[in-house]
Design a protein that fits this description.
heterodimer, A: 141 residues, alpha/beta, five-stranded parallel sheet, 18% strand, B: 465 residues, five-stranded mixed sheet, 12 helices
């Protein structure tokens, strides 16, 4: 089963500017990253889990996805390559608390799967902002 | 004895000999008795006026002479046999004593010292029996064991027949110390012995094996404990770090959005300071739990030590002298430069803290070649080429109990808030991760010396090839 079907692709056609979708099941981290991006002037949407993320992607494809790699459900490493397949133009920033632990998905693994950047949790503000600016350019306002 | 028990041929021969000699003695006594009776009869007959013929008298004389001769011969034969038995017995006992791997010593402490020592003594302590005759046994005892042995001797001599067994160190002729088990028996009151009989058994090997085993067990327990604590701390630290990320992130935003100089800004700043402190602690725990593994690259250790010492010099109290000796030629080890820097820094910081009243901080980096496997205070050193970093102070030092725990995570002797108890744990983690080992010597009031052994990179490369 693929996460992103034709309907998602249809959604991508109606792309709505430099919008970022933040996916994390940790409410504080999700809010924090969204608030940082918002404070910097990016448009932000949030999703707490896989199904919410798919719903958001169907509604309108963002320009960039910041996604935690360790969440319950089908989201995670496999999702990166599927997202990239379904939405070839999309940038993915993979975030994980396990990048430094030597267990599970490594930075290299995330980059190989198609992520543009892989950031270790806890994500530093400057690090995230630099990565987003490099991928999307400076915010609109 | 059960009737059915079979008699050995030896026992049968003894029994035969005994009954034969008894029969001969009985015969001799019987002949003498008959002779005496005949003589008395003759005397009585004489007094009654009955004459005895010359033939009669000659017969009796012959008979009595024969009987006497037989008795004398028997006595001589018996004596010779007895002598032979005694000699055989003595030879047997001598062989038992002299061929035994234990040494036997007879000594009369109050009168002449050592009277006899069996040849095995030379094998145990290097001195031949002749060399120890006349000397006092206590002369060979390790100074630490002298009071105990004097006490044992006192108690022993008060009670004839008393036996005591003691383990002690005695001096070998070559100057080394040997462990012996000494079994002492008081036979001073036994007229034919008049000595304290000592049986010395060499138990050095056993003692060394026991010591090595308990050291190994202790190290294993320590390693297991550290690994468990490390794993636990690492697991918590990850989650904790994420939680801190939220606190730090929002405190930062709050601080940004509050007007400069306002109370909310100050509040947010203090939240930031506190959470940053927490984060540095968590980072240390993470470093310790090895979940943030260091790099493994060839590093020139000399400049790292030099740079760290420059930093140390900057924060050094005026009362502390820093002496350093670094190699002139570059030497490489495999490790993470940042982590190795931390090792030097942590050891120097601890040394400085151990000398609140001032003192000498000596830092030496030198090559060390290890020929045979060596057990260190913490870890075993495999043979090979190493770089040895020694950080020594002449400060407060540590007792054994403290020394046993210094690498435990969160163990600290510093005041609350002064140390996390992770500094040396980190040193341990980094050094063992780099394939190295640590040796520590310390004495309360005299200072502490840490020796870090790191495998030389050339050796590691050669080994891999």
């Amino acid at each position: 089963m693929t996460l992103f079907n034709r309907q998602v692709n249809a959604g991508f056609d109606k792309a709505a500017g430099a919008e970022v979708l933040v996916i994390d099941d940790d409410a504080i981290m999700r809010d924090l990253m969204a608030d940082w991006l918002q404070a910097a002037g990016y448009g932000v949407r949030k999703a707490a889990d896989c199904s919410a993320a798919i719903a958001e992607l169907k509604r309108a494809a963002p320009a960039l996805i910041v996604s935690d790699m360790f969440m319950p459900g089908a989201c995670g490493a496999a999702a990166i390559s599927q997202m990239k397949q379904a939405l070839p133009g999309i940038h993915v920033i993979a975030v994980s608390g396990h990048f430094n632990s030597g267990q599970g998905l490594s930075v290299e693994g995330a980059l190989e799967a198609g992520a543009a950047r892989a950031l270790a949790k806890p994500v530093k503000r400057a690090e995230l902002m630099r990565a987003v600016a490099e991928l999307l350019g400076p915010p609109a306002r | 004895m059960p009737a059915a028990m079979p008699m050995t041929s030896r026992a049968r021969a003894t029994l035969c000999r005994v009954s034969l000699s008894r029969a001969l003695i009985a015969l001799g006594v019987l002949l003498v008795g008959v002779n005496v009776a005949a003589a008395l009869w003759d005397v009585r007959a004489e007094s009654q006026g009955t004459e005895r013929s010359a033939q009669h008298i000659a017969t009796r004389t012959l008979l009595s002479s024969t009987a006497m001769f037989a008795l004398i011969a028997l006595a001589a034969w018996g004596l010779a046999r007895r002598e032979q038995e005694l000699q055989r017995g003595e030879k047997r006992y001598r062989a038992m004593i002299e061929r035994s791997s234990d040494a036997v010593i007879l000594s009369n402490p109050g009168n002449g010292g050592i009277l006899y020592a069996s040849p095995s003594l030379e094998r145990i302590i290097g001195y031949s029996p002749d060399e120890v005759l006349g000397r006092a046994g206590i002369d060979f005892v390790h100074p630490d064991h002298v009071p105990r042995m004097r006490n044992v001797a006192d108690v022993l001599q008060r009670e004839p027949g008393r036996v005591a067994t003691e383990e002690l160190l005695v001096r070998h002729k070559d100057g080394s110390w040997r462990w012996v088990e000494n079994t002492l028996s008081n036979m001073l009151n036994e007229p034919s012995v008049q000595a304290v009989v000592m049986n010395l058994r060499d138990i050095t090997e056993r003692k060394l094996a026991d010591g090595e085993r308990s050291r190994l067990e202790q190290r294993l327990r320590q390693a297991e404990k550290m690994e468990a604590v490390g794993r636990l701390a690492g697991g918590i630290a990850h989650d904790f770090n994420n939680i801190l990320g939220g606190i730090l992130g929002y405190a930062e935003m709050l601080s940004e959005q509050s007007p400069e100089g306002s109370a909310p800004r100050r509040y947010a700043q203090n939240v930031l300071i506190a959470s940053n402190r927490a984060r540095s602690l968590v980072d240390q725990i993470l470093a310790y739990s090895r979940s943030q593994r260091g790099k493994r690259v060839p590093v020139e250790f000399g400049p790292i030590v030099g740079e760290t010492l420059e930093l140390v010099r900057g924060s050094l109290a005026a009362s502390i002298q820093l002496e350093s000796k670094l190699p002139g030629t570059p030497v490489l080890v495999i490790g993470d430069p940042t982590q190795l820097h931390q090792v030097v820094m942590n050891l120097c910081t601890n040394a400085m803290h151990a000398m609140p009243g001032g003192g000498n901080l000596r830092v030496t980096l030198e090559a060390a070649t290890v020929g045979a496997e060596r057990a260190l205070a913490h870890g075993t050193l495999a043979p090979g080429s190493y770089l040895r970093l020694t950080v020594a102070d002449n400060g407060s030092g540590m007792d054994e109990a403290t020394l046993a725990r210094i690498f435990e995570p969160f163990f600290t002797t510093k005041e609350v808030g002064m140390g996390t108890g992770l500094g040396l744990s980190l040193v341990y983690g980094i050094v063992t991760d780099s394939g190295g080992a640590i040796d520590v010597t310390s004495a309360p009031g005299h200072g502490t010396s840490f020796a870090i052994y790191l495998p030389r990179a050339e050796a590691a490369v050669a080994q891999a090839a």
